[in-house]
Amino acid sequence: MKKLTLLGGISPDVFLRDYWHKKPLLVRQAIPDFAPLLAPAALFDLASRDDVESRIVSRSGKRWDMQRGPFAAMPAATDGQSDRTLLVQGVNLHDASADALLRQFRFIPDARLDDLMISHATDGGGVGPHVDSYDVFLLQAHGQRRWRIGAQRDLSLVDGLPLKVLRNFTPDEEYVLAPGDMLYLPPQYAHEGVAIGECMTYSIGFRAPAYQELGEAFLQFMSDTIDLPGRYADPDLKPTTHPAQIDAAMLENVGEQLRKIRFTDDDIAIFLGEYLSEPKATVMFDPPARPLTAARFTLSAAKRGVILSLKTQMLYRGRHVFINGESFGVEKADRAVLAALADRRSLEPAALAGLSDDVAEALHLWYCDGWLMLS
Ligand code: SIN
Ligand code: CO
Question: Helix (H, G, I), strand (E, B), or coil: what is residue 243?
């Protein structure tokens, strides 16, 4: 595999083998001459929207405060006593250059990639020493930030704070990052970043659902698909002297029926695809104001190609295609074109020649929902 400047001159397979989930990696000039993709004003603008998740963390001495957005206006800049950090989640859903940056990390599957978060801090600002449950690449975008990190076991937290701050932070390494420098941290690795002057940091974050969460969602999914015909019957019922007791025969009968609930690999694939492609609650698509008819859309698509919305999550597995929480079972030929759309996130005109009616219809529907656009 090709060596990447982004990973400090190592290849993705070496990175995944030696660092991913294992140990930090500091990359100086991961993106040489990096310039911020969004000016602070554009970030503040995003933070004022109710379809964008944002937070402000501020600190004054030992006092921490956290507010959730949207924020009509940014609090006044630092007064010398306190500092503040604005954190804006999912910037990639709203900005094509942020999406392109996130997709540089696509040697890791989309099922694991979460989002690009941008933080903007005033001098001295930070969110305190903490650990995250997820892998993260911290790319310095503007100004400088001092990171202190440590592989400590003690993850106990300061009580009573509105955010998770480690009680005993014992860092063993310290780095000052300048624009274009990047620090990879595995999950549960203690870290604290403090702004040196005004600074912006981009977090390329990953998702790793908790098994409990997956299990609960899977049972919910299965409840829509199970099929247990018939109804409880007891033609051999005998008189009882303990009428309040559930009798053994009933228990056995019901157990036998419930044990018929089985799930296949297909059920798991469909569940996982729907679950992982489900848009976050804040996501709102932008459907075209006056959509083209199906026939005109198909003609235009064959001339211009199509591109997925930044907000669309499209995955596939076997003959199943998943888009924004919905699944489709598709024929082999259709699968090839839809898998190409999911992998490349766009299709050029040539790839759209001779579409089946099913795919043409699906693309038009997705276009009407704002899930994809004409290129
Ligand atoms: C930040 O960008 O301020 C915080 C990022 C992190 O520590 O995960
Ligand atoms: Co963190």
Answer: coil
Residue 129 lies in a domain: yes
Ligand 1 contact, 85 CB (< 6 A): yes
Kindly state whether residue 270 falls inside one of the protein's structural domains.
no
pLDDT in tens, 159-173: 999 999 999 999 999
Q: How many domains does the chain have?
A: 3
pLDDT digits (tens, 9 = 90+) for 230-240: 999 999 999 99
| CATH number assigned to the domain comprising residue 161 | 2.60.120.650
Q: Tell me which residue range forms the domain holding 164.
A: 5-206
For residues 172, 178, 179, 183, the Cα torsion angle rounded to the nearest 10 degrees is -10
Does 68 reside within a domain? yes
- Residue 174's SS3 state is strand
- pTM here is 0.93
Could you tell me the distance, in angstroms and rounded to a whole number, from the CA of residue 59 to the centre of ligand 1? 14
Residue 278 CB less than 6 A away from ligand 1 = no
Tokens describing residue 236 = 């051999």
Neighbours of ion ligand 2 (CB under 5 A): 132
Q: Evaluate: CB of 122 within 6 angstroms of ligand 1.
A: no
pLDDT (tens digit, 9 = 90+) per residue, 1-46? 899 999 999 999 999 999 999 999 999 999 999 999 999 999 999 9
Nearest CA to 67 among 20, 117, 127?
A: 127
Residue 90 domain flag: yes
Nearest CA to ligand 1 atom 5: 203
